[in-house]
Amino acid sequence: MIFNVQLPPNINYGTIYLDILDEVTGLALNPTEYQMQKVANDQYTVKAQFATGSMIKYRYVHKIKSDSAPAIEYTSNIKQVRYRLYNVNGSGVVHDIVSAWIDNPYHGPIGRIQGQVLNVATKAPLPNILVTADGLQTFTASDGSYILEGLPPGIHNLVAYSLDGSYQPFQQEARVDVGAVTPAPLSLTPSTFVNVVFVLHTPDLNNTDPPIRMVGNISQLGNTFSDLEGGTSILPTAAKQLVKVGESQYGLNLSLPIGLDLRYKYTLGDGFWNSELNPDGSFRLRQIIVDGKHPVIEDWVDPWQDTHFGPINFSVSVPVNTPVSDTISIQFRTFDWMVPIPMVKVDATHWDYKLYSPLNIVGNVGYRFCRNEQCGIADDSATRGNSVGGWPFSPSLIGQDFEDEVSNWAWWNPGNGLQFNLKNVNRRDKTFWGGIEFLQNYEPSWQSHLKTAVQDAQKTGANWLVLTPTWTFDRNNPPVLQIVPGSDPFWPDLVEMANLMNQANVNVAIYPSMNFTQDSATWWQNGTRDSDWWQIWFDRYHTFVLNFADFASQNNVGALILGGPDIFPALPGDKLANGSPSGVPQDANDRWTQLIKDIRIHYKGQVIWALPYPDGIKSPPSFLAGVDQIYLLWSSRLTSSNNPTQSALTKQIGQELDANVKPFINTINKPVILALKYPSVSGSASGCLSNDQNCRWVDELDQPNPDNPGFQVNLQAQVDIYSAFLQAVNQRSWVDGIVSRGYYPPAALQDKSSSIHGKPTAELLQAWFSLMLPKSNP
Question: pTM of the prediction?
Answer without folding.
Answer: 0.95
